Every structure is written in C-alpha cells, then in structure tokens.
Amino acid sequence: MLTPEQAKDRACAAVERAIRAGADAADAAISTDTAIAVSVRLGALEEVERSEGADLSLRVFIGQRSASVGTGELDDAALDDLARRAVRMAREASEDRWSGLAPAERLMKGAPPALDLDDGAEVSPETLKADALAAEAAAREVAGVTNSEGGSASASRVVIALATSHGFAGAYALTSHAVSASVLAGTGEGMQRDYAHHSARHRDHLESSESIGRRAGERAVAKLNPARMASGAMPIIFDPRIAPGLLGAFTGAISGARIARRTSFLQDMLGKQVFARGVRIEDDPHRPRGLRSRPFDGEGLPVSPMTIVEDGMLESWLLDSAAARQLGLEPTGHASRGGGTTTSNLYMANGSQSVEALIADIDTGLWVTEAIGQGINPVTGDYSRGASGFLIEKGEVTRPVSEITIAGNLKDMFLNMTPANDLEFRYGVNTPTLRVDGMTVAGD
C-alpha cells in the first residue's frame, strides 16, 4: 500500500503525462486501501476477507472538451497509456462550456488541518474475530432472541491523493474500525430482525462489542408482536438512526447541479425560510476523527465549517466549480471526485426540548425506527416510505407497529420539524430525534 507521499507523487505523475500527451489541463485522484473483515455466525467463524487495491482516476481537458478514465495500475507505462487514452477520448467529446478545473486562486495552500483521521492501528484477524464473537454472543444472550444473522468486525486504512495541473497536490490517510451484530427474535412468521453497528476512525473510540450486541438484541425483541394502526394525520417522531435520511434528501435538493438544471423542490429558496424557526444545520469537515472529515474537496479546494441553515433560513447551495460557473457563484468546497457535490460531517444542531417533552403532548402518533424504500421525488419533494416503529399514545411510547406507510411533502415536513436535544455524533450525517407534525400514516 502506498504512503500518502507516494500516492501524491503518482497522482502528479499522471497529471504530467496528460499534459505531455496534449491536454490543456488535468487532474488525477488516487485511492488506495487495505482492509480486513471477519464475520461469524452462531459462535463459529464464517468468513475472513482481506483486500488491497488502488484506483487512479485521470480527468483531462482540451478546450471545453473533457474525458475521465481510470486504472488500477500505477506504474509509469500504465500512466503513459492512460494519459494517451484520456486525451484521445477528450478530443472526441462534446463541448461543455461549464467544465474545467477549480479556480487556481481558490486552491488550498499551506499545510492541511490536523484532523487525526489515522490511528496507525494494525488489527489482527484474531482480534477482529474476538470482537465479532463478543458482539454476537451479547446479542444472543438477550432474552427473546432466537436466531442470529451474525456478527462482524472490520478494520481498514485508506490513502487519498489529488493533484491538478494548475498547482495543487495533497494527500492524507484515514483508518476505519467497525463492529456490528444482527439477530432475530421470536419464532415462525412472527420473527423480527434488527441490528446494531458502530464505526470510528480510531479503534479506541469504538463502543464495546458487548454493548453493540446487546443493543441489537434488545431492538429485535422490542419489535415482537407488532400491531397495525389506524390511518390518519398525526405527528411522527424520527429516530436518530432514521432521521439523517431527511438531511440527505435536503442536501440533494440544494446541490448545484440540481439547482442549475432547475430540477429541485427547493429551487429559488436561497435566503428563504426552509425549516422551522430555530433549526440550524452545519457541515463540519474539520471535526477531529470525524467519519467524513477531510482537508480538501474533490477539486483541491480548502474546506471549512459552514452553516447551511440558520434559524430555518437556507444560507447556501452546495457548489462544485462547474455548477458555480453555471450559476454565477463561487464554489463552496463540496465537490465530489465522482462529480457533483457531497457533504462532510453534516448535522442538525440540538433543539431546546428533551425527547420526553417532544412526545408529551402527542395523543396519537408514531415513532419511526425503520424506513423502507426510496420514495422521495427530488423534483416535487413528495415523500412516501414504508415504515415500522412504535405507537405513541397519550405521550407514551407503547407497542410496536409495522406494515404502514408514512407520507408527506418535504417542504411541509421541514417547516413542521422540531429537533430534540439528544444529538450524538455516531454517523457521517447526524441529527437529534426529530418530530414532524402533520404527516399522513396509512395503516388499516
């Protein structure tokens, strides 16, 4: 596996060869990784996987024409061939007046921020096996658990490098550690499945395997004997492991490409009220050990913490260079190497109420812990997904429910959203528990 410096040198070499082959401009990104994963089931080893790989993506520009090619070979001969092939493809491509590298004056300069993303840990298969076994065992010990889909543990290290022909070259490494368990409770047609998972950049930040396993078992048992519920309009509570999907729909709607194409339900909403008053949404690429922290974006621009929504008002689109040119704006440092935009450690800030206060006045409502399907229309904002969770009656979470559909429109949902004060940074995108009033539940 390459070191960050070696990966940066290879990326620079690819760019140099593209310019020699006739490109006016070029950039190259490299990702190399090594990973090991162990899975167990019913107390026995099922699989040990080890992988190593390297991928280089070269993008070249000739005037307003461009092409992108990739390879897993990083030697000089392979880079020579890749550069020639990319230039030939670019010469045949159609023109795109918005394409091009990021503005040279906006490129990151100086040392990258210290994000502490690489713990240098080398984890043995034996250690991972022990983690997986402990997680599964703890889950199976929960009363009511009757079967297991297994436990797993993994560790990986990735090196990312980017170089451009107009003055940027950077690289960094990151590690990832994860443990999960998935079990079933009950018997026959009444069986219920659930899981628990935790991942961290540093191994010493992982939850214990036992706590992960217990949570998986308790979640599965809690879903036993689900009831149906009556249809109607009611408040819905989104569990923190489901609620981040709502932020994903939001950031997709404010991506520069959608705004430029005018295919977003939030078109023309910049500077306007999008969420309820008091809602704040932040993107923080500099969070130490964050699961999505990074020192630069996919075009070599510096990244920095950004408030996207303040007091419910939409403050910014998410823009790469192409969309920024099309809209007459400046890129925001959210470019994804694969094209388009991406966020880093995105989160909705805490509200002022506890979870208990959030549900105290709900006479009949639904706590959603699982959502099924991808029923979101990015053009209209219409939202409809299968769901399961728990009935809320007179301010109390009572019994499990399943086989229901929840529906609304994201514009209305955002404006009627209230966050609790229980935010935890467990995922790449995080929210507190969320209450959304006025949604429709289709049950019996």
From TrEMBL:
Identify the residues that the record assigns to the Metalloprotease TldD/E C-terminal domain, covering every copy. 231-443
Question: Which residue ranges does the record assign to the Metalloprotease TldD/E N-terminal domain?
Answer: 27-90
Q: What is this protein called?
A: Microcin-processing peptidase 1
One Pfam family in the UniProt entry? PmbA_TldD_1st
Organism source for this protein? Answer: Stakelama pacifica
Metalloprotease TldD/E central domain: residues covered: 120-224
Organism taxonomic ancestry: Bacteria, Pseudomonadati, Pseudomonadota, Alphaproteobacteria, Sphingomonadales
The Gene Ontology biological process annotation of the record reads: proteolysis
Looking at the record's lineage, which domain of life comes first?
Bacteria
Q: Which InterPro entries match?
A: Metalloprtase-TldD/E_C, Metalloprtase-TldD/E_cen_dom, Metalloprtase-TldD/E_N, PmbA, TldD/PmbA_N, TldD/PmbA_sf
Record-level Gene Ontology MF annotations: metallopeptidase activity
Among SUPFAM superfamilies, the record links this protein to: Putative modulator of DNA gyrase, PmbA/TldD
